[in-house]
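[Q] Does anyone have a clean structure-token version of this?
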Amino acid sequence: MEIINHNNLPSAVSRLAIQLERIEKVVSEKQVIKDSSKKKYSLSEAAKYCGMADPTFRTYIYRRKVAGTKFGKAWLFLESDLDKFIADYRRPTADELKSKAFDNLTSTKRGGLK
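[A] Here you go.
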């Protein structure tokens, strides 16, 4: 750490200002990430978010396919859990299936072409 005197004061202040801006940027980014991952939905809002009817969504809840918390009679769901649920049930495209099949056929681990 350098000693600050009246000769190097302007450069020290400018370096501190730059560091402070970097710190503020990192803190604000972390707050945005933290706030967006904690968004909560009721049962009907979660069903709408997933693009399905309430009774269908209830079926997934009771089969424990989607994570949620029940408080009394009310269900609450985190947006991150709903995103994971949607990703888990995503159907692969035809190109993805062809690529996976080709990889399995040409894999040396599974006895494919060598």
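[Q] Thanks! Anything notable?
[A] Residues 40-88 form one domain.
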